[in-house]
Design brief:
heterodimer, A: mainly beta, seven-stranded mixed sheet, globular, B: mainly beta
Chain lengths: 117, 111
């Protein structure tokens, strides 16, 4: 299947600093990528939809000034958690949409564990 | 009511058993149905993909979609301890819309 790479896989940062997470589609172009957040033993919560060359669409309740999303190329989307706080500690997962006519498929990255101390 | 309902489990079965995982949904616009497997602390891995109603088989896995009942299933035959994971159903109306996930079912296959 298609490969989506996410980096870093694990990051620890101090409260008040910013952290950037990268999501790359390695073998296909993804005009649309999605960012999710997952708390322990819970399902994935969609944070935002990222479209290449345009502003991201955020889900209700997600602060766009805190979670900055940039989709500057067809293979790269970034999520920056600004002024991180301990409550932002979570598992962040990106996914990329592979368009194949009637078989559009979404592939996930391996996720990034963020711990804010 | 959630758009997608999935029994969270945990579901514990002996090795070799047939496992049945299910989801129900309420949005009749959903056309694409997927099952993902997620191991602890990892990103979801696509297992099965089905468009509209019908069955699809891939090795030990069979996915069924019944759009008239708004019900989807994943069957795992000859279950193995390595199948122990959380299984997430997901669906979409297509286009460039994000997936809507079930809450996930935790499966434990006992050796």
């Amino acid at each position: 299947g298609a490969v989506v790479s996410q980096h870093p896989s694990r990051v620890i940062c101090k409260s008040g600093t910013s952290v950037k997470i990268e999501c790359r589609s390695l073998d296909f172009q993804a005009t649309t990528m999605f960012w999710y957040r997952q708390f322990p033993k819970q399902s994935l919560m969609l944070m935002a939809t990222s479209n290449e060359g345009s502003k991201a669409t955020y889900e209700q309740g997600v602060e766009k000034d805190k979670f900055l999303i940039n989709h500057a190329s067809l293979t790269l989307s970034t999520l920056t958690v600004t002024s991180a706080h301990p409550e932002d500690s979570s598992f962040y997962i990106c996914s990329a949409l592979l368009l194949k006519g009637s078989a559009d498929t979404i592939y996930f990255g391996e996720g990034s564990w963020l711990t804010v101390v | 009511q959630k758009e997608v309902e999935q029994d969270p489990g945990p579901l514990s079965v002996p090795e070799g058993a047939i496992v049945s995982l299910n989801c129900t949904y309420s949005n009749s616009a959903f056309q694409y149905f997927m099952w993902y497997r997620q191991y602890s602390r990892k990103g979801p891995e696509l297992l099965m993909y089905t468009y509209s109603s019908g069955n699809k088989e891939d090795g030990r896995f069979t996915a069924q979609v019944d759009k008239s009942s708004k019900y989807i299933s994943l069957f795992i035959r000859d279950s193995q301890p390595s199948d122990s994971a959380t299984y997430l159903c997901a669906m979409s109306a297509g286009g460039r819309r994000a997936l809507t996930f079930g809450s996930g079912t935790r499966l434990q296959v006992q050796p």
